[in-house]
Amino acid sequence: MQVIYGTAYDEVTPACVEKLKQGISDSEWILFENSSHMPHLEETERFLQVLDEFLSRVECDRNSVD
Hints:
Blueprint: E1 2-7, H1 14-23, E2 27-32, H2 39-42, H3 44-65
Parallel strand pairs: 1-2
């Protein structure tokens, strides 16, 4: 499982990110629209929520394999 994130001001366009996402199975793309290049500082609450949800899914997947 892979998370790809982008911000509204990144040089990589949504079309490029979509191609990248399609090439990585079980990936998801998260866009932080109110950030430049540091969503962990500029949208801290949302960033931590996304990170927590991702880590919870990874942990759940890992536990189901064990």
